[in-house]
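Bug: token stream looks shifted between consecutive jobs. Job 1:
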Amino acid sequence: MSASIFERLRDGTGLLLLQKYGEVFRLTKRGDQVFSPDTGAVTVSTATQDARGKAFSRDSAFDDPELAETAETEIYLTASGLTFAPKPGMTIGAPVTTTEPYKITRVQPIPESGTVVMYRIVARR
């Protein structure tokens, strides 16, 4: 069976463009809290994954000018090879940086149904 047009966009053209013009982003999601009765400690597991994307500053040119803030960044992230999808509340940033990562506030899969090619993410510090 041949790949659909969306799979070819996700794993071919879209990914190649982001590899050429984008950068690596690290998605981090928090897992469950685990309590150890022996030590009394609470630990939180995290999962991370790296993906290619391209970031753009948000200003009045995007969406609703009244809601846009300069502290927001818009990131187009490939869906190719992701083991979990980005969701609001997760963090995203460069894997090796001293700057604080962005907190994801909105995620829109592209396209919104079927095989996702990329994610449009709005995040802020």
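Job 2, same session, no restart:
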Amino acid sequence: MKVCWVISEKSKKAVTESDALKRVAPTWGSCLIYDMYNMDNIVCNDFKLADRLIKHNVQKTSNFYITATDYIALGNPLDVKVFQGEFKDTNINNKDDIVALNIAMQTYDIVLLLGFSFAKSKSKDALKKHNQEAYLYNIRTIIKETPDKQFVLVNYKGKLSKDFTALENLTRDSLTNVLALAQQI
């Protein structure tokens, strides 16, 4: 079985050393937090940040993924990987999480989700509420439409909504247990 980590761009600080995670499986995550975990695979939906990271040669030490549109606009940079598709709704939160999950679930059997929050928005701002609902819908759809993959919420705090508890291929576990179990796979 192939295992990977997908670390949410919502992660505010590293919960463990990146080496501990990498001993278990490759890491995937956003260009916004790549340096926090020294990511193996970086996803970037932000044109300006992608341009800056390419100029700093991040693609030499990691697999760096950007949109096909940005790839062309940046002059087809060497060693940069491309993903297809764009978000029709530009207001979706945490797009890099969604893309990283989409790419990772194509290769891995078990996807360890670290730093994710599946809480519904409590904001009274309609746009903020919409953004979070769209994000949750996308994540839930990825998990639901890949029943042959196992997704594990690692160190998830809080209650899950019925939308997520109903997903048979989504479980929860502690970081300590996951690190121990995944090394045995």
